[in-house]
Amino acid sequence: MPTDDILIVTNGTKESYPAIEQGAWLAATLDSPITLLGVTERQDPAAIDSVHPLENVFEKAVSVFEAQGLKYQLEVRNGSAEKIVAMEAKKNDSIVVLGPLGRPQLQRWMTGRSIRTFIEDIEQPLLYVPETKLPVKKILISVGGLGYDVTAEHLAMQVAAKCGAEVAFLHIVPPIDLDYPTAKVMSQNWQNLTETDTPVGRSLRKSLENARGAGLAASVKVRHGNVIEEILAEMRDGNHDLLCMGSSYSVHSLRQMYSANVTAEIMDHAVCPVMTARFRSAADVLP
Which residues pair with 167 in a beta bridge? Predict the structure, then answer.
């Protein structure tokens, strides 16, 4: 999946710094240049002679980039990160790397978590970093069986091949409310789902075959229960370094209106970096 650069976002808070470290690792892994985008969200005209909030973070970031021999450029924009980042990401079809922005609790309560807006507005792949997790040796790829996780899966395997990480494909079989044959087979055989002739079973076997064909150490994990709870449980139990998953914004349907945004819920409670990518067909990427 070609990309021109890694766009790392900071607003100068200490909470955003893990994204710089993890973003530098991703850039080194994919041999991509970095654009470090500093967003000044609050300007204080009376503080002209004081240290700019981005200054210390930029200084630390540059030392990290130069120590790893990475190509980088620095950009500064004024305004709301939610409005700026999506526009900047489109310019080079970047992978966006960001973390918590350290907003006051009252602001989060009134406007909601910013990550939900970023997921909705950013069409490019997004790596959310609540805390740095290096080195990356274990990558968990969540596959839902609906097809919109294909791009995320390909990107995850590209990263794994570059850094030598092992991959595990995770599928959650939810409790069924509908009485139809495929759902029954999956619910009754979830512990050996890869052996079933269901669409998900075939998809998991194909993913495993592709990963092993690329020389990766790969396995399949299947859990049964609430999708969000089980993904979070596997992240904790498996001590994974990176979670990759698709986005519901890959599909244009009423599903977004009545189902929980699983990706956003996972990022709200993540214990490791989470990468998400929308499904992109040939029609999406061809000029």
Answer: 139, 218
| 72 DSSP β-pair partners | 34
Q: Which class would CATH give 6-128?
A: alpha beta
The token duo for 27 is 């850039």
Asked if residue 279 lies in contact with residue 272, where contact means CB atoms within 8 angstroms, the answer is no
Cα 198 to Cα 192, 195, 206: the distances in Å are 11, 9, 12
pLDDT tens-digit series, residues 36-89: 999 998 755 544 445 577 999 999 999 999 999 999 999 999 998 999 999 999
pLDDT top residue among 16 and 181:
16
CA 155 to chain centre: 10
Distance CA(165)–CA(217), nearest Å, equals: 8
Cα angle, residue 201 at apex, residues 269 and 1 outer, rounded to 5°: 60
DSSP H helices in the chain: 17-30, 55-67, 81-92, 105-111, 114-121, 150-163, 181-188, 199-213, 227-237, 255-258, 262-268, 282-285
Q: 173 pairs with which residues across the strands?
A: 224
Q: Which whole-number Å values give the CA distances from 67 to 31, 70, 71, 139, 242, in the listed order?
A: 15, 8, 11, 25, 23
Fold of 138-285: Rossmann fold (3.40.50)
Amino acid at the residue 32? S
**Residues spanned by CATH 3.40.50.620 within the chain?**
6-128, 138-285
Radius of gyration of the chain (CA): 20
Cα torsion for 188, 193, 197, 202, to the nearest 10°?
150
Q: Is the dihedral of CA 197, 198, 202, 205 positive or negative?
A: negative
